[in-house]
Amino acid sequence: MKKTMSxxxxxxxxxxxxxxxxxxxxxxxxxxxxLAPALNKARTEAKKQKTRAQIASLEIAxxxxxxxxxxxxxxxxxxxxxxxxxxxxxxxxxxxxxxxNDDGDMVWETGEALVDAWGSTFSYTNxxxxxxxxxxxxxxxxxxxxxxGTDDDIVNW
Length: 157
Ligand SMILES: [Ca+2]
Ligand SMILES: [Ca+2]
Description:
Blueprint: H1 2-5, H2 11-69, E1 123-125, E2 136-139, E3 154-155
Antiparallel strand pairs: 1-2, 2-3
Bound molecules: calcium ion (2 copies).
């Protein structure tokens, strides 16, 4: 009597456990699928913020250069540790360990190359189209393609 009343165990129970496990895995897969785009978006936004901060630093360095030299640098490299212009008192960007890193890129104080968060060099001109009386600086943005300051490019104007 006691034996027949016990809860059945064995095949049926273990099969149910596998279904539970598969359900949990499926739910996790769905959650990852839902979270991945949000994580990607957050990562891209962080890179945009970093690049905007870099552009702001470059603007400040250009202003400091102008205060000393009386004109804006013709290239961003003139903000580095060596300058020949009269009145030059740089570096206006503090490179670490020399002007260039192993890749030949000018580096920030932190030792990072003078490139945006996606590894592209900045577009710069002291003959500005947009920010007149100053300089035009922009990053190619997440697509790493020069869109002339449109599309996803991150600009200082
Ligand atoms: Ca672009
Ligand atoms: Ca584009």
